[in-house]
Design a protein that fits this description.
By secondary structure, this protein is an alpha/beta fold. 28% of the residues lie in helices and 20% in strands. The chain contains 10 helices and 13 strands. The longest helix is centred in the middle third of the chain and has 16 residues. The mean pLDDT is 97. Bound molecules: NADPH dihydro-nicotinamide-adenine-dinucleotide phosphate and N-acetyl-L-glutamyl 5-phosphate (X2W). Keywords: Amino-acid biosynthesis, Arginine biosynthesis, Cytoplasm, NADP, Oxidoreductase.
């Protein structure tokens, strides 16, 4: 069994990790931390877990994390970087769901995240955990930077086009919508029911912190710098990411065949038949990214639609996918749930 610790067990990604891990046949959850709920039974706070878990939240300072085989950080940015080094030294693997180890250029990270990096020496070693690109590196990793929710949907959507070298990478556009759980469980005015429901707005247009992450990933695939306009939106739904991606074709190929071939061996990427439009509810609660590729009116513009559940393929599910790969388990173990409809 893999002995697992979760730091930040009361946030939305933390409780999603719990929902998936309590039924994972090769995992034993040893510790779940919360500063605000320390001493409280996990199943008293999250009643969906009643009958599945018999643990109390512990304060992060008291949790015996260095006795675990793996620790997930489901914490705000800037927390994992303070503890990763000592855990690795104790032989514990680390998966950070936040952004502490995602960006290789430290000055760039410090600019976007507004803090000094506490552990720059580990950035080179950290593996960006998008298995569809980095599976071989994930296998031997000790430290995983789990991708952001927007970056997962956008990178998987653009990937086949960039790998094939058939689009102009200087003018990429990602128009992306997120449900409000993407903002986390902490109280904030913009996620109040009266603010977020029956409303729809863009935000972060001058610059969102996922922009450098997506550009870094796409530039690695292209093996040259890419230019991207990224516009996130908040939509009145709870879960889900819907990315509409635009690029200019510089070469005509059978796009449907390209996407089907690229993802034919990927358990968690589903390419829809030609002409279809994926819906966020078709992936809700699952680790699947569903993609459709279109070339409207046979013009030179390709439009890709990519949907995920931000809390699963965009966070907890992808983190468990990485864990399965790191521990040489079947990649789908414990995370092949059928999406919830309606
Ligand atoms: N929501 C989403 O869709 C996605 C989120 N992420 C990232 O995952 C991480 C967690 O997100 P989410 O679950 O939404 O966040 P939440 O705000 O919902 O939860 C944060 C959790 O971290 C704990 N925490 C906060 N501060 C500290 C601290 N200083 N030390 C230890 N624990 C702390 C909180 O519990 P307590 O205060 O009681 O200790 C809480 O359990 C974030 O970095 C987020 O950006 C990534 C992809 C998608
Ligand atoms: C809707 C919403 O507010 N989304 C969050 C991003 C989601 C997130 O969790 O950011 P990381 O993946 O980098 O951790 C935002 O725009 O700040």
């Amino acid at each position: 069994m893999i002995n697992v610790g979760i730091v930040g067990g009361t946030g939305y990604t933390g409780v999603e990790l719990l929902r998936l891990l309590v039924l994972h046949p090769r995992v034993k959850i040893k510790a779940i931390t919360s500063r605000s709920e320390a001493g409280i039974n996990v199943a008293d706070l999250f009643t969906n877990l009643r009958g599945h878990i018999d643990l109390k939240f512990s304060d992060p300072a008291d949790a015996k994390l260095n006795k675990c085989d793996l620790v997930f950080f489901a914490t705000p940015n800037g927390i994992a970087m303070q503890q990763a080094e000592s855990l690795l030294q104790a032989g514990v693997k680390v998966i950070d769901l936040a952004a502490d180890f995602r960006i290789k250029n430290i000055a760039e990270w410090e600019k976007w995240y507004g803090m000094q990096h506490a552990c720059p020496t580990l950035i080179t070693e950290a593996v960006y955990g998008l298995p569809e690109i980095n599976r071989e590196l994930v296998k031997n990793a000790r430290l995983i930077a789990n991708p952001g929710c927007y970056p997962t949907a956008v990178q998987l959507g653009f990937l086949p086009l960039i790998e094939a070298g058939i689009i102009d990478v200087n003018h990429l556009i990602a128009d992306v919508k997120s449900g409000v759980s993407g903002a986390g469980r902490k109280a904030e005015i913009h996620t109040l029911l009266a603010e977020a429901s029956d409303n729809f707005k863009a935000y972060g247009v001058p610059g969102h912190r996922h922009l450098p992450e997506i550009k870094q990933g796409l530039s690695n695939i292209a093996q040259k710098p890419v230019n991207l306009t990224f516009v996130p939106h908040l939509v009145p739904m709870i879960r889900g990411i819907h990315a509409t991606l635009y690029a200019k074709l510089i070469q005509q190929v059978d796009l449907q065949a390209l996407y089907e071939k690229r993802y034919q061996n990927e358990a968690f990427v589903d390419v829809l038949p030609a002409g279809k439009h994926p819906e966020t509810r078709s992936v809700r609660g699952s680790n699947i990214c569903r993609i459709a590729v279109h070339q409207p009116q046979n013009s030179d513009t390709v439009v890709v639609l990519s949907v995920t559940d931000n809390l699963v393929k965009g966070a907890a599910g992808q983190a468990i996918q990485n864990m399965n790969i790191m521990f040489d388990l079947p990649e789908t173990l414990g995370i092949n749930q059928v999406p919830l409809l309606p």
